[in-house]
Design a protein that fits this description.
Blueprint (H helix, E strand, L loop, with lengths): L14 E2 L4 E3 L2 E2 L1 H8 L1 H8 L8 E3 L5 E3 L4 E3 L16 H8 L2
Antiparallel strand pairs: 1-2, 2-3, 4-5, 5-6
Length: 97
Amino acid sequence: MFSVSAIRSPAPGVLCDAYLCADDKGVSRELTEMHLGGQAATALFSQGGFDRTAFTFASGVFCDTKERLCRENRYYGADGKRSGAVSQPYTRLLFGQ
């Protein structure tokens, strides 16, 4: 296994941490089950409805499929815009840009 905060890319266009897997469409039950197991997928999706298109990995890296960007964090600045620096490596891995 890998550390809770580690993000890995088990397949092209897929990012996973210890709790979820996502692709360029967002958090995916199928990918979570495939790469982390059925128990992880059940735990994640039994929490009720949530926005699958904007998500934060355990390490704090935030990805937004509408923006097609991953950032170092999910926080906003005083101007009301996302303040986290764009994470080029994770953006490239997830969105291929």
